[in-house]
């Protein structure tokens, strides 16, 4: 890789111990003990960029290799770089403050995820092209993909760039955040492409399943492209409320979900948007925004989109045969909404707003049974 120098320092020590002398025949009996100590490779002058695109250089980085299961030192700041395609099969543990640079065209697969314990911090950086990647999937069922183990509080996780995919364990770990019964300290996303998934009643980004404590955690989103999915019935991005209920009863941002709502910090912007999890054709799809506080001149927008489209019309697919579909309409007043259209807009002079979208079939069913489709609602402040 351009601009990277590898300096591998290998220490070998051989100790010979005289254990016995046979004077009868003059032979010398010895045991030779061999010990080898191999230090992790380091590289110097590694470039990286921050979320604003400004270039920086780390003077020295430890190279992440397939046996790199402990990163950093308690009460110290250290730097690591992924400069090849590497897989670490055991769970990685972060100590102190660890800066991780994802070099362009390089990837790290953390097969049992990354533990960021309470009191520690993981900061992820990208290089100029932003093509480095991290895939962290917890194979242990109670763990977060990136964050806590079961029944503990995760530390601070900051993502400034890169392509990040994180999946929580099957018993209820968040993709990024708390493990099963676990909270987190702070999650900050400033850039990058992030996909975070929980499989079982935890948040994609935020609290784990059955959370039993609250540490005043924060989720701060300043930028990036985020695709977060909670477990069944759980919100994509959520945290504990002040009485320690599980993620199932808490709040979400930018993603479908049900239950109660609270707030999330996006830049210096605060708002709550509520979107229904399920809508039956013929009933209304009610979207609302409350507690909106955004910069002067900005507008909070909710737009609708879908991958299920034929001839610019939304469709639902038959439950047993996806080749059979029904068209339907999404209508705001007397205006039909198409994929990409804005369905709710709240200006900086308003504190909230709502939109009631009616749904109706635009087709004649041929087969009886259940038809389902999916709409995606995107929230922006622009």
Which descriptors would you attach to this protein?
6-stranded parallel beta sheet, 382 residues, mainly beta, Immunoglobulin-like, 53% strand
Short description:
The protein has strands at residues 5-7, 10-22, 27-38, 42-49, 55-63, 70-82, 85-88, 92-102, 107-110, 114-115, 121-126, 133-137, 146-147, 154-159, 163-167, 176-177, 184-189, 193-197, 205-206, 218-221, 225-229, 237-238, 264-266, 269-274, 284-293, 299-305, 309-310, 313-318, 321-332, 335-337, 342-347, 353-361, 371-372, 376-381. By secondary structure, it is mainly beta.
Q: Could you explain how this protein is built, in words?
A:
- It contains no helices and 34 strands.
- It is an all-beta fold and 382 residues long.
- The radius of gyration is 26 Å and the shape is elongated.
Q: Taking all residues together, what is the mean pLDDT?
A: 78
Q: How much beta, percentage-wise?
A: over 45%
Helix percent band: under 10%
The total of beta strands comes to 34
**Structure classification:** mainly beta
Number of helices: 0
Distance between the termini: 38 Å
Helix and strand topology:
Layout lengths: L4 E3 L2 E13 L4 E12 L3 E8 L5 E9 L6 E13 L2 E4 L3 E11 L4 E4 L3 E2 L5 E6 L6 E5 L8 E2 L6 E6 L3 E5 L8 E2 L6 E6 L3 E5 L7 E2 L11 E4 L3 E5 L7 E2 L25 E3 L2 E6 L9 E10 L5 E7 L3 E2 L2 E6 L2 E12 L2 E3 L4 E6 L5 E9 L9 E2 L3 E6 L1
Parallel strand pairs: 5-6, 6-8, 7-9, 8-10, 8-11, 9-12, 10-13, 11-14, 12-15, 13-16, 14-17, 15-18, 16-19, 17-20, 18-21, 19-22, 20-23
Antiparallel strand pairs: 1-4, 2-3, 4-5, 23-24, 24-25, 25-32, 26-31, 26-34, 27-28, 28-29, 28-33, 29-30, 29-32
């Amino acid at each position: 890789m351009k601009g990277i120098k590898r300096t591998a320092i290998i220490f070998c020590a051989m100790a010979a111990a005289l254990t016995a002398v046979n004077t009868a025949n003059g032979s010398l009996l010895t045991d030779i003990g061999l010990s080898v100590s191999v230090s992790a490779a380091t590289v110097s002058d590694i470039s990286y960029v921050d979320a604003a695109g400004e270039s920086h250089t780390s003077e020295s980085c430890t190279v992440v290799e397939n046996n790199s299961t402990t990163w950093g030192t308690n009460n110290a700041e250290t730097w690591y770089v992924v400069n090849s395609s590497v897989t670490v099969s055991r769970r990685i543990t972060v100590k102190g403050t660890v800066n991780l640079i994802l070099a362009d065209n390089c990837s790290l697969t953390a097969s049992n995820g990354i533990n960021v314990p309470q009191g520690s911090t993981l900061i992820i950086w990208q290089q100029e092209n932003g093509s480095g990647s991290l895939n962290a999937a917890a194979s242990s069922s109670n763990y977060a993909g990136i964050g806590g183990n079961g029944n503990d509080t995760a530390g601070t996780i900051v993502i400034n760039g890169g392509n990040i995919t994180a999946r929580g364990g099957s018993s209820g770990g968040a993709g990024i955040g708390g493990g099963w019964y676990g909270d987190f300290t702070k999650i900050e996303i400033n850039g990058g492409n992030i996909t975070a998934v929980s499989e079982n009643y935890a948040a994609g980004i935020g609290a784990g399943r059955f959370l039993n404590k609250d540490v005043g955690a924060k989720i701060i989103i300043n930028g990036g492209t985020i695709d977060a999915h909670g477990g069944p019935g759980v919100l994509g991005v959520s945290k504990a409320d002040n009485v320690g209920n599980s993620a199932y009863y808490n709040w979400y941002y930018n993603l479908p979900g049900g239950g109660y709502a609270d707030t999330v910090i996006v830049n210096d912007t605060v708002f709550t948007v509520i979107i229904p999890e399920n809508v039956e054709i013929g009933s209304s799809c009610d979207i609302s925004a409350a507690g909106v506080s955004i910069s002067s001149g900005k507008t909070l927008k909710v737009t609708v989109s879908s991958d299920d489209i034929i001839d610019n019309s939304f469709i639902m697919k038959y439950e047993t045969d996806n080749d059979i579909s029904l068209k339907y309409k999404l209508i705001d007043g007397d205006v039909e909404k198409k994929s990409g259209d804005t369905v709710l807009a709240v200006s900086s002079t308003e504190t909230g707003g709502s939109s009631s979208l009616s749904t109706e079939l635009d087709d004649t069913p041929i087969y009886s049974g259940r038809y389902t489709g999916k709409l995606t609602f995107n929230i922006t402040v622009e």
